[in-house]
Amino acid sequence: MRLPGFAPTFSLSHTDPKVNESATHIADAQRAITGHPGASTPLHRITDERTISKHRSAMCGRSHAPSGKDCDEYPFAATKEGGNPRRGSIRVISAGDNRTADALLGSCYKSQRVLNSDAYYVHIK
């Protein structure tokens, strides 16, 4: 059940050393991409693994991250807005940072009950 007026929000902090690379990438991307996806306009979660894989491949398929690094994409591959290189951003960041941020996003989906097609925002502190 959705609460009227409640906007689910995923938050990361620049000051958290476990996710500061992810937070910086997201903040930079939100400023640079028209419409400021996740900040001014919501993202929309998708759960179809095939589509998520296509989005990830469209953004990071040609990126060769060195050992210990990951290609990070924004908007996230698991969003309707993801997978468009003309309206997205990629950055090579530490694998640990990227995977910790992904785990926190998964926790946010659960704790704020963000289901398939639901809108949510991304806030960087």
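(ticket continues) Second input and output from the same batch:
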Amino acid sequence: MRLTGSFLVFAVTLLARGFSSGACFADDRTGTLDLYFIDVEGGAANLIVTPEGESLLIDSGYPDNQGRDLNRILDVARRIAGLSRIDHALVSHWHLDHYGNHAALAAEIGIGTFWDRGIPDDLQEDPRFHERIAAYRGATQNKSRALRAGEALPLKTGKVPLSCRVLAASRETVTGEGSLNPFASEHEARPEDATDNAASLVLLFSLGEFRYLTCGDLTWNTEAKLVTPRNPAGKVDLFMVTHHGLPVSNNPALVLAVDPVTAIMCNGPKKGGAESTLKTLRRVESLEQWYQLHRNVDLELGLQAPVDQIANQGTTAECHGNWILARVAADGKSYTIQIGNDGLPARYQTRSDH
């Protein structure tokens, strides 16, 4: 693992971009691919705005907590990204911290097309699933579109090709693609996970040479199924650490194989950010830096990302809900990552050895 000195990276970025902390992100966009990681304190909410101005929200946090997660998503969508509606909204899997605000967002800002893996008849780990899914069914008018492994999300593309491919869905994965995984032997099988986590959608985004992989809450054995014996994801530039950084996910057979240059962990102060996951990240050969939405308040700070790469430092009561933005250049050849509106952007080069 190689770590880039933050001060040097920030200084070079400032000179290169003439960055001003008061800049309006929506107005500053020049055909970039923007990936916002919104703090929903252990759930997930990943807002993506494409070079063509098309928007996609992956997951939407919890529906309670006095509207905390809903309001944070709306703030980033409207004030920071400059959106008046969300074109696509996707549910990675059927746990409430991932689809809880889709219906409210449809009412507040409007959603064009809903995507998911298909709605199951029952969810054994959630006895209130039929009650909770009713709002989603109503918002979609029972017309959400189910995705399958191997399909592509129909996003608009420009001169530099943009794509979003589904690598796994409903426990099925693409097969027979990619190079043999040299880390396949890292997998040690665990008891099968019967929860919906194992059925998560896995998405691989590409803009030119840039690659971003997000696996929802995919768990250990299905992670291995995806990347062994062959790895269809290849090596990536940016990886959203799976399942908030929990140890039931982040199988080294997958993490080491995709070999990210950067990673972002959507954890909470007491959810995710596990020591074993952080140790796996430290083994990644190409990793220059990882970022966390939260400091794990129960774990020694020295095991976690550097302090200036952690968006929120305190407990839930002290949290300001800082977000993280990864912005990919229009040509897909470089990208920056920064924390919040006033954060200093660190610049990274897109890899060419995918």
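Agent notes: The CA atoms of residues 275 and 299 lie 7 Å apart. DSSP finds nine helices and 19 strands in the chain. Closing as not reproducible unless the customer responds.
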